[in-house]
Amino acid sequence: MKKNWWKILGALLVLYSTIAGLLMGVPRLPILHESIRNLYFHVPMWFAMIVLFSNSIYFGVKSLLSRSQYDDLKAVESVNVGVVFGVLGLLTGMVWAKFAWGEFWSFDPKQNFSAISLLLYFAYLILRNAIDEEQKRAKISAIYNIFAFPMMIVLIFVLPRLKDSLHPGNGGNPGFNMYDLDSRMRMVFYPACLGWILIGYWIYTIRFRISSLTYKQQ
Amino acid sequence: MKKIVFTLIMLITSMNLFAQASEIEMADALRSNGKIYIVVISIVIILLGLLTYLFAIEKRLKMLEKKSGDKN
After folding, report:
1. Which domain holds residue B22?
2. Where does residue B20 rank: exposed (0-12), middle (13-18), buried (19+ CB within 10 A)?
3. How many domains does chain A have?
4. Coiled coil located at which positions (chain A) (predicted)?
5. ipTM over the 0.90 cut-off
6. Could you report the per-residue pLDDT of A23-45, keeping only the tens digit for each?
7. Nearest residue of B to residue A16 by CA position?
């Protein structure tokens, strides 16, 4: 129980942010109306994805140094979970875009580039499956990971800022400070991010333990 | 005189803008008659179910880990 406190914390934070996110007051803004509450659910998905991908590159580099199969398994499983959160982020973003921008997919730079960065990680998973030999697979996928991670960061955080984008925080659009100025939203938004990051990490540990069990039994 | 009239017109138009801010459509009716709570409750039930399911999966996993630890 003592070791599991952060899982309970994550569960409580997610529950709190859902209840407070639906019931607490939000600023009255045109176009967004109540859909501003999506901030509590759409954005944490991406934060959880970034944390899991960072975890993946950390263990990828570590597996290159230690040659440990377990470090390699940690790297893969965090990508496996991170990709799920990325897809959820993309889908929630599409629904929000339909009602805020008028189209599910308006070929906005942020949408395009985040889809491409997800494809990069799908390629990582496919690349791994294509190699049978264990040591080789670990080495090649770790090196691919070292290239994929900075590209993902550039695609999501740098390139959309250089172009005109409908997404907040890009191309001259005001960023989070537009919403963050409202302290009521901050009280829900930060706990939501932390909660979903913890839940994502928890699912990753479960996946890693399953795959290390199967690895042991081989 | 022209200046005063201009200021008055500006004042009136800006007051109109202030009035518009509170006219932005929100789900006030939904909240006032209390029906939103039903949605919140069902979402919470789903979340609680999924989270306890996660805990249950982990419990089973722990059992398996113990078993394979004994073997090795």
Report:
1. 2-71
2. exposed
3. 1
4. none
5. no
6. 888 887 778 888 888 989 999 99
7. B44
